[in-house]
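hey m, so remember when u said the tokens were messed up on ur end? i reran from scratch. heres the input so u can diff it against urs
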Amino acid sequence: MRYAGILMGIWLVVSGPASAAFLIPSGAVETYQEWYFTTSQNPAAPEVDDNPIGDFPALTAQIGGAAFFPNLRWENGVWKDTALTVTIDVPNNEVPNPYKVVTVQMMVQGDIVLSWVRDGQGNDFERLSRLIEPSGTENDPWFLVTDQWRIEPNPMFERFCYGLNGFDGGDAAIDWVKIRTLCVPEPASLGLLLAGGGWMMRRKRRA
């Protein structure tokens, strides 16, 4: 499987394996999960689950929005098809907070054709930024995608959905997903948007 990381602070990219503490505003509640698809189970539970709020729901992969998955393939930790989507329901603190910031990072092949976040009432939320980087080697079809979303006001849960199409008739694929959330109480700290990364460890993809 492919494991890669990125150091972030309003999308500041720092070369090399350096790391820094992720700055959390006083009173904020943080969750962090990683999906590596080490088995073919679909929906897939996170292999890393650091969530003080409660159990984190599974990630569901499917083909082109279909209700069933006859062609979706799992190959050594990678989900792939000519078109596929993944959805994740993210739980929130039982005590509503003014807002939360969610960072989603994925290693993918293909073109991102949809990406949205909605609450249980169907309200959409704002994506603050997106960074897409090549995986680091020439002629490698994998890309590192890092999105940051602001959820305001903070609902009981929100649903993330990403859709991918393969390039030139090839496969779209997803190798791993990582999600970090910060539920921010009042008074919100301006330091949140200056948060330094270090929460993703760079690892080399298995042959």
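this time it looks ok to me. Residues 82 and 90 are 27 Å apart (CA to CA). if urs says something different then somethings off w ur setup not the seq
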